[in-house]
């Protein structure tokens, strides 16, 4: 007997698949221990008795089905016989699932699976970070009037919801790589997922998608301008390469760091979930500055370099928010300025991409993530 109860991995998988449709076996580590979840997934492929703890109802079904060869295309879906259990999650969960995934019909095409996996990993990160990502639980979005309904609880809206707000929306965002929109009262981020490969960037499509998302954020969350973009990925080096590649092609105003002045890299792991929680804090950059530096060093006006503090002849940048766009600008300033010293503050896990990118010209200072989290909670 398998029991579906709050806090159980089986419930987490059901909730995730009710929104994602498909999820990569390789992404299970986002949720918890990969080995434990792989064993559970294979167990749930078998037909067996299932009991839902809060209703007492019992089912005899296969919960999951796994397909595809070993590797990145190994794919997890709900089994058709398990769909009635979705109504146990929420009265509208099954309705959403059937509408989103064409009555449980998947093409099996590589491109469609990869797209669903990108969105699925994004949803798993949001879920693990405490962001509400179930469309049947988030406040509905509208694009007709300014009426903020998104409050202090951060909410994630998958791209399929953004595209369906009105008939013209699909045309505007048809070529975007965006996986969704993260909203909280006063905070808004467009969200992307590079996974483990350099992401192709469709400048015109992304510019239109950003404009539409900004309008949605203004009408529903009281956001005057998007806070930036969140770039999920398996590697900071790949994320940086994505940023640099978009700068080589197309119009200057369609580069990713022109469309979004802040581009935050968030790894697809536990450290990334902690960073994601920080990014939902309003005015995060100013609060980080107050934690790291005494008032006399903090930059509050214009200086020649985009930085957070100035200590004598040294410019200091905080990379604790993972903003790659600022990191690129900071390196460029250091290369062009031989008179001043430069220092970047980062987490130990960020070293793998920050150190080779900044080189020997810029000093590095490591900060314990736990110290920052504790200090921000006190303020």
Description:
Helix content is about 40%, strand content about 20%. The chain has 15 helices and 15 strands. The strands form four sheets. The chain has a five-stranded mixed β-sheet. Helix 1 (about 10-20) packs across helix 5 (about 110-130). The mean pLDDT is about 90.
List keywords for this structure.
379 residues; alpha/beta; Arc Repressor Mutant, subunit A; Rossmann fold; 3 domains; four-stranded mixed beta sheet; elongated
Quick check: average pLDDT?
92
Number of domains: 3
Q: Helix count? A: 15
What is the spatial order of strands in the main beta sheet? Answer: 7-8-9-10-11
Oligomer: single chain
User: Low-confidence parts lasting 5 or more residues at pLDDT below 50?
Assistant: none
From the spread of the alpha carbons, the general shape counts as: elongated
- Percent range for β-strand residues: 15-25%
SSE string, helix = H, strand = E?
EHEHEEEEHHHEHHEEHEHHEHHEEHEHEH
Q: Find the structural class using helix and strand composition.
A: alpha/beta
Straight-line distance between termini: 47 Å
Share of helix, binned: 25-40%
Radius of gyration: 22 Å
The beta-strand count equals 15
Question: Could you describe the largest sheet, including whether it forms a barrel?
Answer: 5 strands, mixed
Layout of strands and helices, then pairs:
Blueprint: E1 2-4, H1 9-20, E2 22-24, H2 34-44, E3 48-52, E4 58-61, E5 64-67, E6 75-78, H3 86-89, H4 93-100, H5 110-128, E7 155-158, H6 159-163, H7 167-172, E8 180-184, E9 187-193, H8 203-221, E10 228-233, H9 236-246, H10 256-259, E11 263-267, H11 270-279, H12 284-292, E12 309-311, E13 314-318, H13 324-336, E14 341-346, H14 351-358, E15 363-366, H15 369-378
